[in-house]
């Protein structure tokens, strides 16, 4: 089994899916000969040709719109937004068309598109290259939002997303691309969408998070284990719709819940997670549900120190877990 | 009882616990004033509790700084009465009793001293405690500010399960504490739907001290204990004759009365020895049978009713019992009953006959399981061998806790008491 980083696992998933199903094709800015600005489509143009790896104009509405049209026509497009920050011109297509078409056409039409977009800060990208945009899309029935936390997960979940018969917004943390490495199986596998995963078993505090923050939570948990604090980590994997069953189970297990996001705290995904817990787990709760997120300022400061201050990291999570454990 | 306030030698004197199940006391008289110098153990105030009047001694030598409580104030046990400035503030007492300072601890104070979260229970803690019938006051919290965490109660549940799996049954030596807890936990379910109107000329008497205790105990007893009653009539002609023959000589020798009541107590104590079921109390998940036979007797003084206890009645002669009745009555009349005189009763015998009653239904003296009312001895025509006879008759009325006792056992007890009383003579029951 080869050790791959996050972006290599993505490339692998794309390659394998394109080999498996000729309806799968890629469109986006610089995805062709350039291989994508993050090299996610590296080598695919060479392997599959310009008909299946399409460079597009700088028009996100067109990337989404063309993809949606192709999907409704029976193709399996994988549309790439160069940065998640630029997805906003495509919101109308994604919400009003892709997410609605199955419902609106009474199942006559569907839209099996996958829209990949790198999100998140920590790469010195400033305002337009660092934001978390998942919350904007997280109350649109018909749309699924998948945010993998590791190379293994990203490969399995991307394959599942491409094969899914409905639109999936696939958000990859750009800092994870070369930060996270692990062994990824050569063989074909998928990870079910809509299911969260327990990434660590523990009994004192439950951390529920997603994306790159899972990595920071694991680091914090390993450190705290030496102090005798045992942490359960639930990786949401899919942030819309949420895996209520797994959330309830994980929260009830310890009764002390820490929710972590890199997004601005107010109105973020974890607020919804908190609501699910408070609806279902009151009599198992032993402490207030704690949320850890970014302050209410636009992501992300360009100044390195401020960017570091704003970003989630394992120290912040560690302190929050310890506080809860001691409560 | 005494807690440090700061390092400067200013100490609190709090309302002490003056006897079992006493939860508050009323400051009747201050014996000191601010500025007075007092020695350790000097009395500083007279305090009236629902059981006794007592003097509160000072725990320190020093100067009274401030009297916080006013005369007439009713304070809960542990509440601040006054401040005293202690001489030689470096004395060990400051340091050895640093529990719960009144002001919030400083940030650098050790975390384990902070108990501010001790009584804050999370939903999980409440649920687990209720499901497992745990007393949260008995659990030490490991969380911040002494908070009881879910893990703490889960551990307590596990320990409880282990404890209940152990085969050894507890003997009758139950610590007083466990019993006390249950008594104090009781909240009388009194619901007054409408305020009662006071008419012009009516006198309003505040319910305090002893009256309130009697009221609370009665409500507690009547609401918690399912009462059942029975009455037997006893022919005490022989007893009357015997006592009349002896009473003048006895008075002359001993200086106090040879009362009928002593004979009744004697008979009851003998039979309680045979029927320990009646000398017991209900303790929720168990019945505690008492080893000692300590009879509570009701003694009225003015408008007050005291229930002092004669201890180990089964070991005492008629004279010994008569002497204690006399002594306790005297103390009640002069207001000298101590907490010790009132504690430890296991069964109550009430001399209702002394105020002319011939039949009554007593309310059990909580947490005992039965009370016996000895009614008036009256001459009545009785048929013996198909002939009328004038006999001295008395009714004995028993109220019983039907959770603990049933009619059969109580009937047997009562008929044995009857048998003793009907056969009293100088042969069967010597006075000395």
Question: What does this protein structure show overall?
Answer:
The complex is a heterodimer of chains A (327) and B (432). Chain A is 38% helix and 20% strand. Chain A has 327 residues and is an alpha/beta fold. In chain A, the strands form 3 sheets. In chain A, strands 3-2-4-5-7-6-12 form a 7-stranded mixed β-sheet, with helices on both faces. In chain A, strands 9-11-10-13-14 form a 5-stranded mixed β-sheet, with helices on both faces. In chain A, β6, α7 and β7 (168-173) form a beta-alpha-beta unit. The longest helix of chain A is centred in the first third of the chain and has 15 residues, at 6-20. Chain B is α+β, with helices and mostly antiparallel strands and 432 residues long. Chain B is built from 10 helices and 18 strands. A 6-stranded mixed β-sheet of chain B has the order 9-18-17-16-12-15. In chain B, strands 1-8-6-3 form a 4-stranded antiparallel β-sheet, with no helix packed on it. A 4-stranded antiparallel β-sheet of chain B has the order 5-4-2-7, with no helix packed on it. In chain B, β4 (43-49) and β5 form a beta hairpin. The longest helix of chain B has 18 residues, at 237-254. In chain B, 31% of the residues are buried. The chains are: A alpha/beta (327), B alpha+beta (432). The interface between A and B is medium-sized, with 12 and 12 residues. Chain A: This is Alpha-ketoacid dehydrogenase subunit beta. Chain A: InterPro entries: THDP-binding, Transketo_C/PFOR_II, Transketolase-like_Pyr-bd, Transketolase_C. Chain A: Residues 4-179 form the Transketolase-like pyrimidine-binding domain.
């Amino acid at each position: 089994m080869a050790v791959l980083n996050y972006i290599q696992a993505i490339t692998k998933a794309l390659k394998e899916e394109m080999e498996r199903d000729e309806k799968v094709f890629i469109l986006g800015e610089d995805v062709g000969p350039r291989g994508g600005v993050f090299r996610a489509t590296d080598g695919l143009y060479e392997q599959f040709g310009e008909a299946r790896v399409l460079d597009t104009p700088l028009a996100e509405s067109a990337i989404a719109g063309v993809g949606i049209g192709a999907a409704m026509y029976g193709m399996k497009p994988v549309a790439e937004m160069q940065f998640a920050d630029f997805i906003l011109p495509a919101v109308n297509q994604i919400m009003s068309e892709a997410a609605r078409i199955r419902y609106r056409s009474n199942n006559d039409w569907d839209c099996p598109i996958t829209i990949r977009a790198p999100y998140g800060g920590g790469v010195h990208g400033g305002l337009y290259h660092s934001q978390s945009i998942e919350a904007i899309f997280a109350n649109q029935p018909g749309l699924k939002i998948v945010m993998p936390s590791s190379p293994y997960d990203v490969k399995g979940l991307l394959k599942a997303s491409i094969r899914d018969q409905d639109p999936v917004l696939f958000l990859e943390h750009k800092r994870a691309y070369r930060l996270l490495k692990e062994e990824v199986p050569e063989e074909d596998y998928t990870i079910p969408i809509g299911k969260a995963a327990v990434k660590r078993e523990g009994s004192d505090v439950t951390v529920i998070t997603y994306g790159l923050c899972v990595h920071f939570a694991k680091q914090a948990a390993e450190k705290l284990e030496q102090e005798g604090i045992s942490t359960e980590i639930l990786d949401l994997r899919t942030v819309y719709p949420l895996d209520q069953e797994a959330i309830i189970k994980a929260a009830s297990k310890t009764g002390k819940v820490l929710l972590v996001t890199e997004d601005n705290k107010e109105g973020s995904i974890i607020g919804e997670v908190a609501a699910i817990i408070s609806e279902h787990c009151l009599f198992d709760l032993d402490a207030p549900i704690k949320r850890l997120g970014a302050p209410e300022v636009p992501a992300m400061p360009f100044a390195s120190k401020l960017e570091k201050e704003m970003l989630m990291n394992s120290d912040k999570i560690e302190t929050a877990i310890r506080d809860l454990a001691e409560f | 009882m005494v807690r440090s306030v700061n390092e400067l030698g200013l100490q609190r004197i709090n309302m002490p616990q003056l006897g079992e199940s006493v939860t508050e006391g009323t400051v009747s008289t201050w014996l000191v004033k601010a500025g007075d110098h007092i020695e350790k153990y000097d009395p500083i105030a007279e305090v009236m509790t629902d059981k006794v009047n007592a003097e509160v001694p000072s725990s320190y030598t020093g100067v009274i700084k401030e009297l916080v409580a006013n005369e007439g104030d009713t304070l809960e046990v542990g509440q601040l009465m006054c401040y005293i400035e202690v001489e030689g503030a470096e004395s060990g007492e400051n340091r050895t009793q640093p529990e719960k300072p009144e002001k919030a601890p400083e940030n650098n104070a050790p975390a384990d001293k902070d108990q501010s979260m001790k009584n804050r229970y999370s939903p999980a803690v409440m649920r687990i405690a209720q499901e497992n019938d745990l007393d949260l006051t008995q659990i030490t919290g490991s969380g911040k500010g002494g908070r009881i965490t879910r893990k703490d109660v889960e551990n307590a549940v596990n320990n409880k399960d282990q404890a209940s799996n152990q085969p050894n049954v507890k003997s009758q030596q139950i610590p007083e504490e466990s019993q006390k807890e249950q008594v104090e936990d009781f909240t009388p379910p009194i619901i007054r739907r409408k305020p009662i109107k006071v008419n012009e000329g009516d006198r309003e008497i505040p319910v305090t001290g002893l009256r309130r205790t009697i009221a609370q105990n009665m409500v507690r007893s009547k609401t918690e204990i399912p009462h059942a009653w029975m009455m037997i009539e006893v022919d005490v002609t022989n007893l009357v004759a015997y006592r009349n023959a002896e009473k003048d000589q006895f008075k002359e020798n001993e200086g106090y009365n040879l009362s009928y009541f002593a004979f009744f107590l004697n008979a009851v104590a003998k039979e309680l020895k045979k029927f320990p079921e009646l000398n017991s109390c209900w303790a929720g998940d168990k019945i505690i049978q008492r080893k000692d036979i300590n009879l509570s007797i009701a003694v009225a003084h003015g408008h007050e009713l005291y229930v002092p206890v004669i201890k180990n009645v089964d070991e005492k002669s008629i004279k010994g019992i008569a002497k204690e009745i006399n002594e306790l009555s005297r103390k009640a009349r002069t207001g000298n009953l101590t907490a010790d005189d009132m504690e430890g009763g296991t069964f109550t015998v009430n001399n209702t006959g002394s105020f002319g009653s011939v039949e009554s239904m007593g309310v059990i003296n909580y947490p005992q399981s039965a009370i016996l009312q000895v009614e008036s001895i009256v001459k009545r025509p009785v048929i013996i061998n198909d002939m009328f006879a004038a006999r001295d008759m008395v009714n004995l009325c028993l109220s019983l806790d039907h959770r603990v006792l049933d009619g059969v056992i109580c009937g047997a007890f009562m008929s044995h008491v009857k048998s003793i009383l009907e056969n009293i003579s100088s042969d069967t029951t010597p006075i000395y």
